[in-house]
Amino acid sequence: MKVRILGSAAGGGCPQWNCACAVCAAARREGRQRTQDTVAVSGDGSAWYLINASPDIRTQLVSAPDLAPGPGLRQTPIRGVLLTTAELDHTVGLLSLREATALTVYATAAVRIALEPVRQMLAAYTPVDFQSFGTGLAGGLTVQRLTVGTKRPRYAAGLPGGDWVSALRLTDARTGSSFVYATCLPAWTEEFDEFLRGADEVLLDGTFGTDDELTRATGRPGSAASMGHLPIEASRHRRARHPGTRFRYGHLNNTNPAVGPDIATDGLVLPL
Ligand code: MLT
Ligand code: MN
Ligand code: ZN
Q1: 89-142 pLDDT, tens digit each
Q2: Is pLDDT at 270 greater than 90 in this prediction?
Q3: Is residue 31 left, alpha or beta, with left meaning phi > 0 and alpha meaning psi from -120 to 50?
Q4: Ligand 1 cavity residues, CB under 6 Å
Q5: 24 exposed, middle or buried (CB, 10 Å; 0-12, 13-18, 19+)?
Q6: CA 144, 149, 150, 154: dihedral to nearest 10 degrees?
Q7: 58: CA distance to ligand 3 center in Å?
Q8: Cα 13 to ligand 2 centroid, rounded to whole Å
Q9: How close is the Cα of 90 to the center of ligand 2, in Å?
């Protein structure tokens, strides 16, 4: 199995276009950037699935050699998109995939209902198939899903459903190696602990370093917990129960100055 981090930032990316905070200012000055959270995964190196589709998807795809088209004129190795939320920073990129000759999207019922307007827009450009999650994917991958959160996107207030936020576990059926994606994790429950047991790699929620980070950095109210994100300070010690698993953090908010060996970067290929 191959896992490629296409983008490692939360909504807005870093630097965010209209943000002059210390973290964004330093990134701008030093010419560093993180694009918004999206991951690509493949069991055989030729059939690929995107986990989410960020607003930065075009830039992310053209800078990933594994995802280049060919040999057919419009042939792409991307077989589908697995959505873990309906948030705009995970779904706006679907509209940029309209050039596809066909598009398959896997999502929960709540997420599919929220994205029905997007599905209708896309359907005018290409045949689209929005499905519930199955288990088998092309290239020898299987996928398991766990509902980890019920927070609706702001634009979806009032819509029905409970399965708004998922963690995914992708397993290579031949080697048994597996990768867990959980970049929007409100709490590390016993159920989640069980879900990731024995995984080789886990990409965790790195949105905030501390629970009060957003307020400290911007003066805006709102703890990490109230936004559905377990801060790094709280998940760090939970990792100790899984000594054979490598953890990394993705979906970094532009208020989060975190750097270090366990922080994902754009373009990182995880060793699995
Ligand atoms: C989140 O990750 O919690 C959302 O993307 C926040 C937002 O952009 O509204
Ligand atoms: Mn987000
Ligand atoms: Zn900023």
Answers
A1: 999 999 999 999 999 999 999 999 999 999 999 999 999 999 999 999 999 999
A2: yes
A3: left
A4: 10-11, 87, 89, 154, 184, 227-228
A5: buried
A6: -110
A7: 23
A8: 10
A9: 7
Q: Within 10 A of 135 (CB to CB), how many other CB atoms are there?
A: 10
CA of residue 19 to ligand 3 center, whole Å: 4
Average pLDDT score over the chain: 97
Amino acid (1-letter code) at residue 85: T
- For residue range 109-123, what is the model confidence (pLDDT) as tens digits? 999 999 999 999 999
pLDDT digits (tens, 9 = 90+) for 183-215: 999 999 999 999 999 999 999 999 999 999 999
Ligand that lies nearest to the alpha carbon of residue 214, given by its number in the listed order: 3
Q: What digits encode the pLDDT tens for the residues 21-57?
A: 999 999 999 999 999 999 999 999 999 999 999 999 9
Nearest Cα residue to 261 out of 249, 271, 253, 269: 249
What string of DSSP letters covers 120-168? Answer: HHHHTTS-EEEE---SB-GGGEEEEEEEEE-PPPGGGTT---S--EEEE
Q: Token digits for 65?
A: 């050699």
The atom number, within ligand 1, closest to the CA of 251 reads: 2
User: Which atom of ligand 1 is nearest the CA belonging to 87?
Assistant: 5
The three-class DSSP label of residue 16 is coil
Contact 251, 204 (CB under 8 A): no
